[in-house]
Design brief:
The complex is a heterodimer of chains A (222) and B (330). Chain A is mainly alpha-helical and 222 residues long. Chain A contains ten helices and no strands. Chain A is 60% helix and 0% strand. The two termini of chain A are 58 Å apart. The N terminus and C terminus of chain A are likely disordered. Chain B is built from twelve helices and no strands. Chain B is globular and about 70 Å long. Chain B is 77% helix and 0% strand. Chain B is mainly α. Classes of the chains: A mainly alpha (222), B mainly alpha (330). At the A-B interface, helix 1, helix 2, helix 3, helix 4 and helix 5 of A face helix 1, helix 2, helix 4, helix 5 and helix 8 of B. Chain B: Pfam families: 7tm_1 (PF00001). Chain B: It comes from Zonotrichia albicollis (White-throated sparrow).
């Protein structure tokens, strides 16, 4: 049951809440409101509930539909067409982003990266592949994370040209090369499955330790 | 909400009671041009019930599985709660309409008023909670990607809970304020500006993440051992489009309705748009159904939790990472 907010009715302005529900109540409760009004004859009839029905009718007062130049549902049609066009446009923009790639790097850089990556993958890939404890998605995530680490180290070593170790806590390095530092095997579609915190928290998850006596190897700690 | 000026209601009894009947007849003549598009109650209830059940399942799954006690899943839970509130609001509203039709809810003005206000606040709370939860999820993913190695330090569990508490306190306060002062333009305009602003911000976050993912997919594609195809990049574009498209299509009609209701209630074009209000409401409830599919069900761990919940109701749900021989329903 909606009670109209009187000041708004007087001013011709409807409140948000009024419009949230007014239409439905207007039609469906109209009959009951009519019954109520017709049955009342005294001051008793002038309770709040009766006034609200009346004020609601005032608000939706005479809306003349004569002389419309365009179709009466033109706003509806225009809105949905506009929305569809916008979504399709957004899709094409995103698709174009996938087609136009980043500028190609030098071959030397590429080969160096490949070497580094292979070595790191070989190093960290073994425990993952031999470890049947971890589920498949955690293996994927951990590999992605390791690739991330690999590339971070790689870039820092290359671009800084200093013998700074893999100080992976330094966030500023990440910021310098935001587009080329991290590495992912999946695309954005899999980012929802990219469960880094899940993996990172593995060793701190006590539930794994106390109840599960079957994890044969400890989780790989970053 | 109308407690502040109840005297105005009773001030002019003559004016209201007598013309009301005439206005009703006038009203009925005028409204036939653009009649309210009525969604059947069965559809309403089905959609609302489906939304509530789905989101409740997610909440139960996250609560029961200790491995899901992570910031990412807490934000997804927050989204589930706000979707559930929206569907609950619609369900209660429909129940009240049915009771009104039967004639049960006509007498007790104060009780109904308070209930009315509470329900309006709930709806606005759901809307704001939805927007801010989506924003929190996008920000969480952004931090996951761009600050991956420090993610665990940046987004601790405690911080995530504090962020959620702040978001919900803000949403609750705003919803009560908007419900109380909803008739002023000062509340409607910020409310409608917030929506595209948030959407634009979320879009920027995701595009940045998307660009990064694309550039690295390209790098991986240059490796000899990689098997990434362009198809995966297309999938990313499709995912992002689906996510933002659903958000827009479900919420934008309602926001436009509010704008038109505030600024041109008597315009025939606006009135015709406002006549499809129930379709807009149903879209919001559909959003409550689609959101879990986009966010929650994508997570493999949550899916496995659901499977365990349905197939093995009595087993413990804390151990997804065990050897196959232990994955029995004990």
């Amino acid at each position: 049951m909606r009670k109209s907010k009187t000041p708004k009715a007087v001013l011709g302005v409807s409140p948000l809440t009024h419009f949230i529900s007014t239409g439905l109540y207007l039609l469906r409760c109209r009959m009951s409101a009519l019954r109520l009004i017709s049955n009342r004859t005294s001051q008793q009839a002038l309770s709040n509930s009766d006034y609200t029905w009346d004020y609601e009718y005032y608000e939706y007062g005479p809306v003349s539909f004569e002389g419309l130049k365009a179709h009466k549902y033109s706003i509806v049609i225009g809105f949905w067409v506009g929305l569809a066009v916008f979504v399709i446009f957004m899709f094409f923009v995103l698709t174009l982003l996938t087609k136009t790639g980043a500028p190609h790097q030098d071959n030397a850089e590429l080969s160096e990266k490949r070497f580094h990556m292979k070595s790191f993958v070989a190093e960290f890939g073994r425990p993952l592949e031999s470890d049947r404890v971890f589920s498949h998605q955690m293996a994927e995530e951990s590999q992605s994370l390791f690739h991330f680490c690999i590339n971070e180290v790689d870039h820092m070593n290359k671009e800084k040209e200093s013998q700074k170790g893999p100080s992976l806590e330094s966030n500023t390095h990440f910021q310098e090369v935001p587009k080329s530092s991290a590495m992912f095997e999946e695309d954005l579609h899999c980012l929802t499955k990219f469960n880094i915190p899940n993996f990172v928290n593995t060793e701190q998850n006590s539930s794994l330790g106390e109840d599960d006596l079957l994890i044969s190897e400890p989780p790989i700690i970053l | 909400m109308n407690t502040e000026r109840p005297s105005n209601l009773i001030k002019h009894p003559g004016q209201t009671s007598i013309p009301s009947l005439e206005n009703i007849s006038n009203f009925s003549l005028n409204i036939t041009d653009c009649t309210q598009v009525v969604v059947p109650e069965e559809v309403f209830f089905t959609v609302a019930a489906a939304g509530i059940l789905e989101n409740l399942l997610i909440l139960i799954a996250v609560v029961r599985n200790k491995n899901l006690h992570l910031p990412m899943y807490f934000f997804i839970c927050s989204l589930a709660i706000s979707d559930m509130l929206g569907s609950l609001y619609k369900t209660l509203e429909n129940i009240f309409i049915i009771l009104c039709k039967m004639g049960y809810l006509t007498r007790h003005g104060d009780f109904e008023k308070k209930l009315d206000d509470a329900m309006d606040s709930m709806f606005i709370l759901s809307l704001l909670g939805s927007i801010f939860s989506l924003l929190a999820i996008a920000a969480d993913r952004y931090i996951t990607i761009f600050y991956a190695l420090r993610y665990h330090n940046i987004m601790t569990l405690r911080r995530a809970l504090v962020i959620l508490a702040i978001i919900w306190a803000f949403c609750a306060g705003s919803s009560i304020a908007i419900a109380l002062f909803s008739y002023e333009a000062a509340t409607v305009i910020p409310f409608t500006i917030l929506f595209p602003l948030m959407m634009f911000f979320i879009l920027c976050l995701y595009i940045h993440m998307f660009l990064l993912a694309r550039s690295h997919a390209k790098k991986i594609a240059s490796l000899p051992s990689s098997t990434v195809h362009h198809r995966t990049n297309m999938k990313g574009a499709i995912t992002l489009t689906i996510f933002l498209g659903v958000f827009l299509c479900c919420w934008a009609p309602f926001v436009l309705h509010i704008l038109l209701a505030r600024f041109c209630p008597h315009n025939p074009y606006c009135a015709c748009y406002m006549s499809i209000f129930h379709v807009n409401g149903t879209l919001i409830m559909c959003n409550a159904i689609i959101n879990p599919m986009i966010f929650a069900f994508r997570s493999p761990e949550l899916r496995s939790t659901f499977k365990k919940m349905f197939y093995c109701p009595r087993s413990k749900l804390k151990i997804p990472t065990i050897t196959p021989k232990v994955m029995l329903c004990l």
